[in-house]
Amino acid sequence: KMEEFLNLTQLKTSLKEAILLDYYTAGFCWAKEMNFSLIQLSGFMDLINFALENLSGKHMTLGDNLKELERAMTGIRETESEERGDLNLFSIDQAKAIIDYLVTSLFKHYKAYEYLFHTRREEPVISNE
């Protein structure tokens, strides 16, 4: 279902799509384990998408992306990227857990994700042989 929701059409041949599916699915499972409400789950998935969009679409540096995440999490609506909704749905402990999750799952591996999104790779030729 996540594959359909994310509109991943080349999952079997695209490493990038496979990694994105894995990241979103892991985030969704983590949020379910945290017993987030549906609104909190939606807000958390929005934060994941926000951070990945800042990296992939806006080519933000790690520092800039962290600043944007801080603004989004503290409810400051005028972020550099776009206007965010009200994400003050999380308790302080939940917000700390979210930050820890994003640091360990995305920001510690930022260079690898930058490589994934911004390094041009040659398309492999697949034949019947």
Describe the protein in words.
- With 129 residues, the protein is mainly α.
- The protein has one domain (2-74, 86-118).
- Helices cover 60% and strands 0% of the residues.
- It contains six helices and no strands.
- Helix 2 packs antiparallel against helix 3 (38-56) and helix 3 (38-56) packs antiparallel against helix 4.
- It starts with a helix and ends in an 11-residue tail after the last helix.
Task: Offer a quick outline of the entry.
The chain has one domain (2-74, 86-118). It has six helices and no strands.
Summary keywords:
129 residues; mainly alpha; 60% helix; globular
Cα(first) to Cα(last) distance is 32 Å
Overall mean pLDDT stands at: 83
Report low-confidence residues grouped into runs of 5 or more.
76-85
DSSP strand (E) fraction?
Answer: under 5%
Cα gyration radius (Å): 16 Å
Major beta sheet, specifics? none
Order of helices and strands: HHHHHH
Number of domains: 1
Number of strands: 0
Helical content stands at 55-70%
Secondary structural class: mainly alpha
Overall geometric form: globular
DSSP helical segment count: 6
Pfam families: CLAMP
Protein name: CBCO1 protein
Organism: Prunella fulvescens (Brown accentor)
